[in-house]
Amino acid sequence: MKTIAGAPAVARATNSTEEPESLSAGVVHRLEVEILKGQRKPGDRLDERQLAEQYGVSRTPVREALQRLAASGLVVSRGRQGLQVAQLSIADLLDAFSVAAEMEALASAQAARRIRPEQRTRLEAAHHACAAAAQAGDVDGFYEANLEFHETISTASHNRILQDELRRLTVKISPYRRTITYQPGRMESSIPEHEQIMIAIFRGEPMQASLVMRSHVTLLGEGLSDLLHFLRVSGDQNLLAELA
């Protein structure tokens, strides 16, 4: 077989364009996970050089990753303060939870029709992990298991567009959702709610799954005063910075 002249150069050029894209996607993923897990909070500064050193990459993929996160609203520019993890006003926060409730309700309805056996097993395991963490008073363990529970339902919807949009919104509201987890009795009350959602999905009841998930996620019924109270109790000034 003959080698086409210039082919190796083309291959190298292709690889050189793919590598930064891959690195940039990796930085995006790591930052999203750190925000989800509370390692980076709303208002935290994102320094390009520091991130490059932390992740062991050049500044170019970090810059590209921050641009992508800014385009999705997860990162904002604060002038001289530089780039920061986005903060939500109280109005935007309540709107975000309303949208999340509708999106998760849709995911639950579609999961009731499309869930696969291995996803049923994963969902049940996440439910039991939530129950065990709640019984032990393990807030961090519950939060991790709760993320797994909701993510499994999103995956079981087999709706790629919905999954992508829901993940972006979940990352944006996760610091506030984490704070609500500390509300007395919140973990314990989530267990029967999770069970109702899971049973409806397993029985193939999309309307019921949608109904109970919507009720589970929305915070509007709990009252604005309760939300503000728990944000203040958390003592996290970053979370309260834009709640004036």
Describe the structure.
With 244 residues, the chain is mostly helical. It has 2 domains: 7-85, Arc Repressor Mutant, subunit A; 90-240, Four Helix Bundle (Hemerythrin (Met), subunit A), CATH 1.20.120. 73% of the residues lie in helices and 2% in strands. It has helices at 7-36, 48-55, 59-71, 90-114, 117-136, 139-156, 160-181, 186-202, 206-217, 224-233, 237-240; strands at residues 75-77, 83-85. Strands 1-2 form a two-stranded antiparallel sheet. Strand 1 (75-77) and strand 2 form a beta hairpin. It is globular and about 50 Å long. Mean pLDDT is 82; it is low at 1-18.
Gist?
The protein has 244 residues and is an all-alpha fold. Helices cover 73% and strands 2% of the residues.
CATH overall fold name of the largest domain: Four Helix Bundle (Hemerythrin (Met), subunit A)
Shape call = globular
CATH architecture of the largest domain: Up-down Bundle
N- and C-termini, Cα separation = 71 Å
Helix fraction by DSSP (H/I, runs of at least 4): over 70%
Helices and strands, in order, run as HHHEEHHHHHHHH
Give the C-level CATH assignment of the largest domain.
Mainly Alpha
State the total count of DSSP E strands.
2
SSE inventory with pairings:
Elements: H1 7-36, H2 48-55, H3 59-71, E1 75-77, E2 83-85, H4 90-114, H5 117-136, H6 139-156, H7 160-181, H8 186-202, H9 206-217, H10 224-233, H11 237-240
Antiparallel strand pairs: 1-2
Helix pairs in contact: 1-3, 1-7, 2-3, 4-6, 4-7, 4-8, 4-9, 5-6, 5-8, 6-7, 8-9
Q: Which tags fit this structure?
A:
Arc Repressor Mutant, subunit A; Four Helix Bundle (Hemerythrin (Met), subunit A); 244 residues; globular; 2 domains
